[in-house]
Each structure stands twice: as structure tokens, then as C-alpha cells.
Design brief:
Number of strands: 23
Number of helices: 16
Helix content: 25-40%
Oligomer: single chain
Strand order of the largest sheet: 1-5-4-2-6
Distance between the termini: 25 Å
Shape: globular
Strand content: 15-25%
């Protein structure tokens, strides 16, 4: 039995289940029970052993054979950005055909107030549909003629109906916005409703009327409730584009009001090109490293450290200029001096190479081994740069954006390139710490089980398995990345992401046994009971509690 030396009665005891505490494989029978007191794990073991920790005031529950795992921690998610509009958007995660997806839009339009926008903003891709396409302007007009409709597929393309074009003030005479493109019929010159690029996406999203701060706060809380239903107990928020301090206010308000149920770890990004050093310096000047409490804490700088170092999807030629590299070096020195971890988005090896050169230069003066620098994605990292990354003690945060984009990436990177994208076996062999996440809410689905499925079998939603078997993960290793691996990013792997005695009592009771269910059922796993710090934050009522 794993236990503390303290034998005081537990607050909560769960019996008759299957408990995966995390960590290395152990000999002996699998634990079937778990005990919690004062928000932390007291012990795990057999039913007989754990029942001995019950007292007259203990709550004793029957797991009825269900699997218990440490609470999932998404190591790369844009939750702060996604929360304020969560309840105003539809999500097409799990939809397998366009007809059914369009039915959700029709139902939303029928329930909406006059003129209210109906939107799906990222988290899906046409390759998941049997039709292998996005909807047309005409289809959106037919199902919601009186409502503006906006449907965005990842960051690839968006489609608007006629009402949305009118509401956004866009017609055939409107010029392409900077960084975007409005598609026109080559014969008539009329708008097709399809738009491309961040400039176009933001042009339309900025035209949607904002909601009140109170509604943004409620929407953020609703997002956390939905994520708890998937077994998530923590998020490492990656910051990202367009994230100045005011964008954090709904989250901070929820935290101040005592309503934050998700453990949030925040990476802080530069918002404005050309102002990166000044903006990140302001964050670091007013906030000590790892400042916060058990529910909300500042974790580091990134993922946008310098706009000139961000290679987006890595599907087009990209070069980090000498000026951008110099600014990155300046920012990295400052972060290291202040003791701040750093995370940088980098897909291509051509981007990773100058980033590591910068970090190695800093490392000569200020050792980085204890600062937990990391790269997000690293899809195309070379063996040489894996060795360099390992020498710095830096990590990789894996995500599943290739579960949607693998076919397009293979066209860009060459036939067969996806067999080792990312080179997971080589990362493991190099001893590189690995975390895992989704990169939701727009550039991928928010479903952690889809991400775990992709790590395990290398399968994309278009039905093709491209990643070689040696670069696929075992179920245990993938879950380790999604729990203690993500906790590593904020120096918390000893007390989070595991169910060891003394660890925070963050865990999920699963609808199906992740370790034995057929692999294609993994994306459909849900949580029957999710607990954060010993407090129930989600339940379906199927776990028998008095």
C-alpha cells in the first residue's frame, strides 16, 4: 500500500475500483481503493487496507469497478482566450459528417435571439467529415437566413453566410484585410463567403458585439465545467497572439470571487510586434516567478516571445531574421536573470536551430538546467537539435494538431515525412522531458482523449495512420505526459499529476478503462467524477456516494 505515516481518518474513501497512481510500474496487485484527507491523497491500496482509514465522518464511495487516474493536465491550451466566448460558440469536436454538424447550426439559429451571431470557431477540420469539406455560403444561408453565421476550420479557412458578410460590413468592393484574403468567384467577382488568414478572421470576429464582463466570467466558468467533464483538473495556458493583460480579467475575476475550479498555470506572451521586450519586461517586473496560489499561478514567458520567431503551422518557408534572433536573445537573458521559465512555439527545425543557439548563449552565463525552458510542437526537430535541447535540460510540449493537419503537412514536408512527426521515440531516447496537450481552443479540439488517442496510435481523423510504430506511445507513457509531464512545466510534478501519498487529490473516475478499452474508444472516454483538491467539481451521479 502507498500511504503516509499519518493514520488519522480520511475525509473521502473510494473503494472497489482500479487506481492508477502514475509513475513507474509497480510489482504486486493493482490498487483498488483511494483515501483523501484535507485535499491531499492519504493512501492507495486494497479495499481492506484503505477501509481501515475510515472514521465516523468519512465519506465512503463505491467505484463499481471504474478506473481512477490522476486529473489530466493540458500542457498547452489557450483557455484564457477561449473562455469568454465559450458559451457563445458551438463545437464540432466528434462530429463525423457535415449534415449532422449543420443540424447543430440550425438548432442554434432556431433558439437564438433575432440577429444573434451563430459561430463555430476552430477545434475541427473538414477531413473529419465523410464529405471532406466545409459548408458553403449557400448552405449556411439556407439554415440561418436571418442570423449571421461564421464557421472557422482551425486557422485554415472560415465560411460566412450572407447575413454575416452584411453584419461585418463586407461586400464585393471590400479590399482584402492585411494578413487575410476574401475569396471571390473568378467569373462574377462576387464573394464566395470563404475567407483565409488571421487578418480576415480577426476582421470578422472583431465585428461581433462584445458581451458584458459578467457574462465573460460565467462563460469561462462554464468552459471549466465542460473540461472537468473530460477529466481535466489543470491547464497550462500558452498565452498566444493578442493576449495583453486585460484579456486575463475574466479569469482573474473568477479567481478573486473564489469560483475558479481549474488549476491554471499561465505563460505570458508578447501582444504587439516590435514591443516584445518592453511588454514581457512589464510582466516580469511586476510579477515574481511562479507567483500565485494553488489554483492560479504564473508559470513563465511564452509561447509568443517574439513575433518574428513564430513559424505558425510550419507549412510555408520561414526564417528567423538576425534582428528577431537578437531580440529573442535579449528577452531570454532577461527571463533567465529573473528565474522565469520560457516556452516557445516552434514547428520547423529551421526555427528550432536559432532558438537553441540563443538559449545556448544564455546558458553559458546563466545555466538553464533548473529553469525548465521548453518548445511547443517541435514536429520537425532533427536528431542534432534533440541532443542540443537535452543538453539544456529543456522539454517538448507535444500536442495533437497533426491529428487534423497530417495530410496537409505531408504535402508541405514531403511524402513519408509524417512517419516520424514528431520523433517521439528519439525524444524519449534523448531523455527530454515531455508534456502533452491539445493546443485548443481554435487550432485543435479541446478533447484530451483525442490527443491521447493520437499519441498512442498515430492515427489522423482522415482515417490514415502515418506515424511509424516506434514513434507511438504506450498508454501509460502518454498518460504520464498528460499528467505529471505537464505538471513538470510549473515545477509541480512531485505533488500533481500523481496519486502518491501527500500529492494533491486531483483525479478523475473514468467512464471506460483507458488501459483496456479498444483504442478507437479512447476519444470517447469521459469522466464520471472529477475531483480537485478533494472537492468534487463534476459528477454524473454514477459513482455511488452517500
Amino acid at each position: 500500500m502507498g500511504t503516509t505515516s499519518d493514520t488519522a481518518p480520511a475525509d473521502l474513501i473510494l473503494l472497489n475500483g482500479l487506481v492508477w497512481p502514475g509513475g513507474e510500474h509497480r510489482d504486486g496487485p493493482e490498487p483498488t481503493a483511494l483515501a483523501v484527507r484535507d485535499g491531499r491523497v492519504v493512501a492507495y491500496g486494497s479495499d481492506v487496507e484503505i477501509r481501515e482509514l475510515a472514521g465516523p465522518r468519512s465519506t465512503v464511495g463505491d467505484l463499481q469497478g471504474r478506473r481512477v487516474v490522476p486529473g489530466l493536465i493540458d500542457g498547452h491550451m489557450h483557455a484564457v482566450r477561449g473562455g469568454p466566448t465559450w458559451t457563445s460558440e458551438l463545437r464540432w469536436t466528434g462530429e463525423t459528417d457535415l449534415r449532422t454538424a449543420l443540424a447543430t447550426l440550425r438548432a442554434a439559429a432556431e433558439a437564438a435571439r433575432p440577429g444573434e451571431w451563430i459561430r463555430v470557431v476552430g477545434g475541427w477540420h473538414p477531413c473529419q467529415f465523410t464529405e471532406s469539406r466545409e459548408p458553403t455560403r449557400a448552405e449556411l444561408d439556407a439554415l440561418a437566413p436571418h442570423h449571421p453565421v461564421y464557421v472557422q476550420a482551425l486557422y485554415e479557412v472560415a465560411v460566412l453566410n450572407s447575413a454575416a458578410l452584411r453584419s461585418a460590413g463586407i461586400d464585393a468592393t471590400t479590399p482584402d484585410p492585411a494578413g487575410g484574403h476574401l475569396e471571390r468567384d473568378p467569373v462574377t467577382g462576387e464573394l464566395t463567403g470563404r475567407v483565409f488568414g488571421m487578418g480576415a478572421f480577426n476582421r470578422i470576429l472583431d465585428s461581433i458585439p462584445p458581451v458584458t464582463p459578467e457574462r465573460e466570467q460565467r462563460s469561462t466558468a462554464a468552459m471549466f465545467a465542460d473540461l472537468h467533464a473530460l477529466g481535466l483538473t489543470g491547464i497550462v495556458d500558452a498565452g498566444g497572439f493578442g493576449m495583453p493583460p486585460q484579456r486575463y480579467e475574466p479569469l482573474f475575476a473568477l479567481w478573486r470571487d473564489g469560483g475558479l475550479s481549474m488549476r491554471m498555470r499561465l505563460f505570458l506572451s508578447a501582444a504587439d510586434p516590435g514591443q516584445e521586450y518592453q511588454e514581457l519586461q512589464e510582466w516580469m517586473r511586476h510579477t515574481p516567478p511562479r507567483f500565485g496560489d494553488p489554483m492560479l499561478r504564473f508559470a513563465g514567458i511564452g509561447e509568443v516571445v517574439h513575433h518574428g520567431c513564430h513559424d505558425f503551422e510550419g507549412l510555408e518557408d520561414f526564417t528567423i531574421s538576425d534582428d528577431a534572433a537578437k531580440e529573442l536573445l535579449r528577452i531570454s537573458y532577461r527571463a533567465a536573470e529573473q528565474g522565469w521559465p520560457m516556452n516557445i512555439h516552434a514547428v520547423l527545425d529551421e526555427s528550432i536551430d536559432p532558438i537553441l543557439t540563443c538559449w545556448e548563449t544564455v546558458h553559458e552565463r546563466i545555466p538553464l538546467h533548473g529553469l525548465r525552458f521548453s518548445l511547443s510542437h517541435a514536429d520537425r526537430i532533427s536528431p542534432r537539435n534533440l541532443r542540443r535541447l537535452a543538453a539544456l535540460g529543456a522539454a517538448v510540449v507535444l500536442d495533437d494538431h497533426q491529428v487534423f493537419k497530417a495530410g496537409f503537412s505531408e504535402v508541405a514536408w514531403g511524402e513519408g515525412s509524417m512517419s516520424e512527426t514528431p520523433p517521439i521515440a528519439d525524444m524519449i531516447a534523448a531523455g527530454i522531458p515531455l508534456a502533452a496537450g491539445t493546443d485548443a481552443t481554435r487550432s485543435s479540439s479541446h478533447n484530451p482523449w483525442l490527443s491521447l488517442w493520437w499519441l498512442i496510435n498515430g492515427h489522423s481523423v482522415d482515417g490514415v495512420t502515418r506515424r511509424a510504430a516506434r514513434h507511438r506511445m504506450s498508454r501509460e507513457r502518454a498518460l504520464e505526459c498528460y499528467t505529471a509531464g505537464s505538471a513538470w512545466l510549473s515545477f509541480e510534478e512531485a505533488g500533481r499529476g500523481r496519486l502518491a501519498p501527500g500529492a494533491l487529490a486531483d483525479f478523475a473516475v473514468l467512464s471506460e478503462d483507458y488501459f483496456t478499452v479498444p483504442v478507437d474508444r479512447i476519444p470517447w472516454i469521459r469522466s464520471e467524477l472529477t475531483v480537485v483538491g478533494g472537492e468534487m467539481v463534476h459528477t454524473t451521479g454514477t459513482v455511488a456516494l452517500p
